[in-house]
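Recall that a protein's primary structure is simply its ordered list of amino acids. Everything else, from secondary elements to tertiary packing, is in principle encoded there. The following example makes that idea concrete.
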Amino acid sequence: MATWKCPACSYLFRDQERDSGDDAEPQRFEDHPANWICPECGTAKDKFEKIKIVKD
């Protein structure tokens, strides 16, 4: 499972989690269309950064 971070607002999208209650919402970041934008600030999908979450 990967986590993607918006560089503009720090919104996090975690693979395998629903971004909303809509069943049609993709479960993986890669499954979003190329024109998908951050739901918080409108930053383009191609600007998102894949990050590694470190657990203590």
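The CA atoms of residues 9 and 41 lie 7 Å apart. The longest strand covers residues 3-5.
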